[in-house]
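Lab notebook, bench 4. The sequencing result for the construct came back, and we need a structural model before the next group meeting so we can plan mutations. Quick request posted to the team channel:

Model the 3D structure of this chain.
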Amino acid sequence: MSDIAPDGSPVEMYTRMPTFGEPEIVHAAIPPGAEILELGSGAGRMTHRLLELGHPVTAVDNSPEMLAHVHGAETVLADIETLELGRRFPVVLLASNFLNAPDDRELDAVLAACARHVAAAGQVPLERMPPEWEPRRGTSETGGVRISMSDVVRDGDLVSAVMQYEAGGEQWRHAFTARLISDRDVDAALERAGLQRVRWLDERRAWLEARPVPPTS
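Done. Here's the predicted structure in token form:
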């Protein structure tokens, strides 16, 4: 059986999953060569491309099986929520769907980790599910990976479904529950962490940039 990360993600599948332009969005938003703390790096799907684009990366994940596939970056085995590296970075990256955590406590904990590790004038690129996304059963194929969604349940802003991935004759399943978070709720969560949204980074408003709130004089 393939290794499974603590959140239920199949490790082997993430070693095969391509990027979809996310590293380029981040690269375009930050200074050339800026050092990045990547929270929830997984198997390095984005890490390796960011390294190619010239950014030193410190990759954090709570799965040793995921981190074993990360090469060329400093790696840290830790939970994001309790991470304490004792230093700050010009860029703290939180990709994937951490902003879509169904529980505010988890959301606040990961944003607090961003806030305590970003430099005073630093940047925090964040990703969420697009707010207008409507989950539907169906199948698509990207980068040689066939992706199917089933057992979709929508309850208000909560979405549950089962994802099935197929590649190279292997199959993996991953059930998830996520909350579709509005612009207003994003801003409120950032404020609780001492951060503020400064701009959207793409037309779908899936990517945004936050920065620390300047101290008041």
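Residues 138-179 form one domain.
Will bring this to the meeting.
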